[in-house]
Amino acid sequence: MDSSGISSIIFLLAIVILQSFWAASAREMKNMHHHHSSSESKPDLNDPELQIFFRVDDLKLGGKLPIYFPIKDLSSAPPLLSREEADSIPFSSAHLPKLLERFSISDGSPQAKAMETTLNHCEFEPMKGESKFCATSLESLLDSTRSVFGSKSEFKVATTIHLNKNSTSLLQNYTIVENPIEIPAPRIVGCHPLPYPYSVFYCHSQESDNKLFKVSLMGENGWRVEALGICHMDTSQWDSDHVAFLVLNTQPGKSPVCHFFPADNLVWFPSQYETM
């Protein structure tokens, strides 16, 4: 990747970091990851933040979907550390007491619980056919992504883009106003921000069949969104308690599961394929 490409990534990542709000990201993490514990209480299906899932058959011109795109508070953006800074701080649940002390966070507080959840999430074993990592700096994000695609690979990054300056999150019906465009990348890496005192991205890639789409949407109130959506065509290895199965009323391996990426998520794919 050349210097101009890296500069573009830094600019995009800076925008994404500004959009991150780590208390809200804690809820998104529960919605997105595939390691749902059966001991957790069942999610409230009326929660608007669960309205990110859809079926592959829904992707057609003129189709209407109820979608919740979260709008983040820019004032609570966590800092993006350099590799040197990030590597100097332990990133392990075994060091949680010292980490809480370091960041002046009270044990048992919501922030402490969010940190513990993030560390545990990053320590989960990957599913069969899945590559995963947690990146704590831009350098580690790029290096780990390159390790998924191959050391000599060139790759691009994209994200969901809000074309209006929206200040509040809103669940509303969106209409697909252009034919969805499939980005025929053989493999992608999706990165989701996790709640932590500094920026942490949980990234994962599955070897199973996935389809990435660019979808142009218009909300009932006129909001325009150029959204990235992914359809996981094989969910047979997913936990049966994954929230997507509850929302879509399906089961592992029965049908594809699709979801939109929030604007603070990053999607990486080989550079020879169409981007946003």
What is the count of DSSP helices, taking H or I runs of 4+ residues?
7
The low-confidence runs, each spanning 5 or more residues with pLDDT under 50, are 17-39
Shape category: globular
Strand content: 25-35%
Based on the structure, what is the oligomeric state of the protein chains? Answer: single chain
Instruction: Quote the average pLDDT.
Output: 84
Measure the end-to-end span: 18 Å
Reading the helices and strands in chain order gives: HHEEHHHEHEEEEEEEEHEE
Number of domains: 1
Number of strand elements = 13
Describe this structure in words.
Residues 53-271 form the BURP domain. By secondary structure, the chain is an alpha+beta fold. The chain has one domain. It is built from seven helices and 13 strands. It has helices spanning 3-19, 22-32, 83-87, 96-102, 110-123, 138-149, 243-248, and strands at residues 53-54, 64-69, 130-135, 155-158, 161-162, 170-176, 181-183, 189-194, 200-206, 210-219, 224-232, 257-260, 266-270. The strands form two sheets. Strands 1, 2, 5, 6, 7, 10, 11 and 12 form an eight-stranded antiparallel β-sheet that branches. A five-stranded antiparallel β-sheet has the order 3-9-8-13-4, with helices on both faces. Strand 10 and strand 11 (224-232) form a beta hairpin. The two termini are 18 Å apart. Mean pLDDT is 84; it is low at 17-39.
